[in-house]
Write a structure and sequence with these properties.
Helix 3 packs across helix 4 (76-100). The relative contact order is 0.12. The protein starts with a strand and ends with a strand. Strand 5 (117-121) and strand 6 (127-137) form a beta hairpin. It has helices spanning 12-23, 38-42, 45-65, 76-100, 179-190, 210-222, 311-329, 405-418, 422-426; strands at residues 2-8, 28-32, 104-107, 109-114, 117-121, 127-137, 141-143, 156-157, 171-175, 194-198, 226-228, 233-239, 242-247, 252-255, 257-260, 264-266, 281-282, 285-286, 299-301, 344-346, 352-356, 363-369, 383-390, 395-402, 445-449. By secondary structure, it is of the alpha/beta class. The strands form 6 sheets. Strands 1, 2, 3, 4, 5, 6 and 19 form a 7-stranded mixed sheet that branches. A 6-stranded antiparallel sheet has the order 20-21-24-23-22-25, with helices on both faces. A 5-stranded parallel sheet has the order 8-15-9-10-11, covered by helices on one side. It folds into 3 domains: 2-143 and 265-329, FAD/NAD(P)-binding domain (3-Layer(bba) Sandwich); 156-262, FAD/NAD(P)-binding domain; 350-449, Enolase-like, domain 1, CATH 3.30.390.30.
């Protein structure tokens, strides 16, 4: 059977690509050996939000009563049930949307085995070949083996395995300093677990503005999380009922459980060994053009395979790829790639994030603090927003740490992508009391980048 477009992988990027393709009038098939929703629903985004919300409720109880509410902490079995129910709900909703738009879904393991050809393997060694004029890979990333560390799923685990432990460990070592590491450190600390974060770099959240990253670090440390920087872990092993991690310089750290939040690599398992793309890699990544097209003209990559990790980024990369494919099928030139600016949001408690590229010169840095908000008269919240505004008045970048970051980033992202200047944005009356009305106040501090 021939399709206009075949998508391998049914996570966020695969789903978005399939929906965009069907809406463009393309005959579409979506193939995955995982349930619809993939790692987004069952391993990454949805579970992380459940952990965060569970921890937040525990901390709210503590803030109200002043008593550490161990007895009110839900069991890991209850949290696991919540995560699985939320993942199933996400999956069902996405399946309904795909079916409504006419997407064919095939459950099986898919590989590109020839020119515009996919071989789908099913249980029981049954196989099926199908052809498509274009193939889009949306297989995402997975954790790869780290020398000196053996994951056993019981004491040395990946984040998705935490919910399957028999009970909360008293202490956890988290290896890594990126988004997942900080999100789980924040959530587990809220759930009354002692956390040590071992980061190989000189700051946590390396994609974030350094000052805001340091504020996140100080908040996590104030809540009792131990953070060690500049010391990569060279081994982690079981010793009795504990895990011992050894850093460069022979420093050791001991806990009941170690969680690995580092060393994710692109999942290229969709390529059969006879396909030539592995010789077309730069720094371990397959080279692509702005639309996600590889050196094989009918093969595209989207989502985490090209570094577009968030749901918003996945949607953007899916639309770029489908736009180029639809244009080619119509014998037209694709539209130029829009320079869309998408926020990076880290779901710590409170959240942090970044949007845009920080300019090195010819800009003003505007500092806003939550103490300016009328909302702080109602409840105690703290936060810091930085805006980089160019000489033309355009907002070039923003970084934020504080409650309601999602709300502020929605407003700032709209302004940046719609060409609304800082002056025009700051003159718009925004909802009060809210976090977004921070933009209606003058900044508390202004710096010049010359």
């Amino acid at each position: 059977m021939e399709y206009d477009i075949a998508i391998i992988g049914a996570g966020a990027a695969g789903i978005e690509t399939a929906l965009a393709a069907c809406r463009a009038g393309l005959k579409t098939v979506l193939i995955s050996d995982l349930p619809v929703g993939g790692r987004t629903a069952y391993a990454d985004m949805v579970p992380a939000r459940i952990w965060k919300e569970t921890g937040r409720l525990i901390q709210e109880s503590f803030n109200l009563t002043g008593i550490l509410p161990f007895e009110y902490r839900p069991s890991l079995r209850e949290v696991k049930s919540s995560i699985e129910a939320a993942g199933d709900d996400w999956s069902v909703q996405e399946q309904r949307e795909l079916a409504k738009n006419g997407v064919t879904i095939i459950e099986g393991s898919a590989q590109v085995t020839g020119i515009q050809t996919i071989t789908v393997s099913f249980q029981g060694e049954k196989k099926q070949k199908l052809s498509a004029r274009f193939i889009v890979a949306a297989t995402g990333t997975s954790y790869s083996i780290i020398p000196g560390i053996t994951v056993d799923g019981k004491r040395i685990i990946y984040p998705k395995q935490f919910k399957s432990l028999s009970d909360y460990p008293e202490t956890v070592l988290i290896l890594g300093g990126g988004c997942s590491a900080c999100e789980y450190a924040s959530a587990l600390s809220d759930l009354l677990v002692e956390v040590t974060l071992l980061c190989e770099g000189d700051q946590i959240l390396p994609g974030l503005d350094r000052q805001i990253a340091e504020e996140v670090q100080h908040e996590l440390q104030a809540r009792g999380i131990v953070i060690e920087l500049n010391h990569p872990v060279i081994s982690a092993e079981l010793r009795g009922k504990s895990v011992v991690a050894v850093q460069a310089g022979e420093r050791t750290f001991t806990a009941h459980v170690a969680m690995i939040c580092m060393n994710r690599t692109h999942d290229y398992s969709f390529l059969a060994e006879n396909m030539p793309l592995f010789s077309d890699q730069s720094g371990g990544n397959i080279a692509i053009d702005p639309y996600g097209r590889t050196s094989i003209p009918w093969l595209f990559l989207v989502g985490s395979l090209i570094g577009d990790d968030s749901l918003s980024q996945a949607r953007s990369s899916a639309r770029r790829a489908v736009g180029a494919i639809a244009a080619e099928l119509a014998s037209e030139l694709p539209r130029p790639v829009d320079s869309c600016t998408i926020p990076m949001l880290i779901s710590t408690n409170p959240p942090a994030g970044m949007i845009g590229t920080i300019p090195s010169c010819n800009a003003k840095v505007l500092h806003y603090y939550y103490s300016q908000l009328p909302l702080t008269r109602i409840r105690q919240i703290a936060g810091h927003l930085k805006l980089w505004v160019g000489l033309t008045g355009k907002i070039e970048a923003a970084a934020l740490f504080g409650e309601g970051a999602e709300e502020l980033f929605a407003v700032i992202s709209l302004a940046m992508n719609a060409g609304i200047s800082y002056g025009d944005l700051s003159s718009i009356p925004l909802c009060s009391p809210s976090v977004s009305e921070l933009l209606s106040h003058p900044p508390m501090k202004v710096e010049m980048l010359l």
